[in-house]
Hints:
Layout: H1 2-26, H2 30-33, H3 36-66, H4 71-100, H5 109-179, H6 185-202, E1 208-209, H7 210-228, E2 232-239, E3 246-247, H8 253-262, E4 271-280, E5 283-291, H9 304-316, E6 321-328, E7 331-339
Parallel strand pairs: 2-4
Antiparallel strand pairs: 1-3, 4-5, 5-7, 6-7
Amino acid sequence: MSRFFNKKTLIYTAYWILVTGFFLYEKKYLLYKANMPYFLACVSVRVILLMVIAYLNLHIFLPKYLIKKRYGSYAASILLSVMAYLVIQSLYDWYLYGYIVGPLYRSNMYESLYYNFFSTLWYLGLMLSLKLSIDWYSQQLLIQRITVEKLNAEVDFLRAQVNPHFLFNILNNLYALTLKKSEQAPDVVLKLSSMMEYMLYDSNDDKVLLDKELEYLQNYVALERLRFGNEAVITFNIANVPSGLTIAPLLLLPLVENAFKHGLSRQTANSELNIDIAFNDGVLTVKVENTRPLAPAEPLKGGIGLSNLRKRLALLYRGKHDLQLKDEPGRFSALLIIEL
């Protein structure tokens, strides 16, 4: 914003330089008819008076009357300031042309008043338009900054919701293994430790390497495989994904997590989960398909993961993604397409 205010000062300075330059050009004949002091005095008086009126309008009349919708008071203030300008400028012109330079164009009072009135309104309107344009632009910058901050805050909030949700599921898995006194429990702890490191350090960045995100997802699926054993058929395929690509962290987890929580975890036998991830022509395609009970014994709880996923996609990949969810009897599928 400080850069903008510097630019704002430069714009106003450039405006008054142009106005002064115009009057210098317009009054250059005074160099021949009078002398340099009268030439400079004529231009200085006009520019200073215009600056005074502009200051009164922009810093007093505008915020005190116009913004508060006191249009009558604003119009009266402008009229009084213009009349004061006309009296001072016209008297000076009458003196200059009547006694110093001699009879020239606009040498009588009526012509001087007429010229000064409309020229003053012109410059005042131009300055007001410039002021309103700059204020509108600064307001747009402020709105944009607030919007970005709001989006960032919402993304952080959504990310904070994802982490506890994931931990809740994994700790339940680990608890089940420890009850069975499984020899696989230490391996679960190591994988969970690796995943926690990713969540604590890498997932706080706006973007992470897609390789790390997929490794995180593979660890998650490996942990779930340990829990389900031979009770479920789980396939995980990754094809044509080059290294060096980046993606928003923890963006793919809700699709897989939802498949386990609302699909395999609720089906006692013949459960399946297929995960296919591919990258072609700058587009990442993630397809997750799982079986689910035909008639759930109880209403599904949660739904935080997919709801948050939709919001994050809307914030981070607006116009560059497509999420399709298909709920069929005994089967649920999700297709996510993202332009990276």
